[in-house]
Design goal:
The chain is of the alpha/beta class and about 230 residues long. It is built from 10 helices and 8 strands.
Length: about 230
């Protein structure tokens, strides 16, 4: 039986403030391979794009001279592998739920709203984090960057999850914190709820959204309009 409404959530910076643990993993890897470390704000802006893009941008912007002396592809692959290993072992040290998330998920469940996660985090890491932070059971499906042969901002990352969950695109909303999420929602023709202050270097005024929220407290007042 198709649920009356489907909500899709981004993970990093939306459901969970994962920046502290991602920053620690990133700086561990950069230091190990002899590259400069980065500040919280610099890394937050890259999180939504996934590990490969994050490492690629850091390598390109921070180590142009070093790259000239090494095999970029080879070093990047080693760094990504080390990053995922370290992060996976330290995935819930400082990360925490965004304010109001648990109560909102409970409300959605009570109202028979179908929920899924679309993240550019690798699937196994996303599921592991959701389980450890104790909200995995709220979601019917979790799609990571490697679940399909495409990921956000490709709209198929969202539409495939809706299809798998037996939802209706016309009865689905996307909730995220960055321009990547906004582009995904727009490409899939879904209403988009933007969480302010997310993991992006783009100003809120430059991101297309239908609703703007500061956290998940009171979000049900918006969702009620779609029930």
């Amino acid at each position: 039986m198709t649920q009356k409404l489907t909500l899709l959530f981004d993970l990093d910076g939306t459901l969970v403030d994962t920046a502290p643990d991602l920053i620690n993993a990133h700086n561990y890897v950069m230091k190990k391979f002899g590259f400069p470390t980065k500040s919280a704000n610099e890394i937050k802006a890259l999180v939504g794009m996934g590990a490969k893009t994050m490492m690629g941008k850091i390598l390109w912007n921070s180590a142009k001279e070093e790259i000239k002396k090494i095999n970029e592809k080879e070093i990047k692959e080693k760094m990504i592998k080390e990053f995922i290993k370290f992060y996976g072992e330290n995935i819930l040290i400082e990360s925490k739920l965004t304010n109001g998330v648990r109560d909102f998920l409970i409300w959605c469940k009570k109202n028979k709203i179908s929920m899924g996660v679309c993240t550019n985090k690798q699937e196994h890491l996303a599921i592991d984090l959701l389980k450890k932070i104790k909200i995995n059971d709220f979601f019917e499906y979790v799609a990571g960057s490697n679940t399909f042969n495409y990921c956000k901002p490709d709209p198929r990352h969202l539409t495939s999850v809706i299809e798998i969950m037996g939802g209706n695109i016309k009865k689905t909303l996307m909730i995220g914190d960055s321009e990547i999420d906004a582009q995904s929602a727009e490409n899939a023709s879904l209403p988009f709820i933007l969480l302010e202050g997310g993991y992006t270097e783009v100003k809120t005024s430059k991101i297309k959204y239908n609703y703007l929220i500061k956290d998940f407290t009171g979000l049900e007042n918006i969702i009620k309009n779609y029930l």
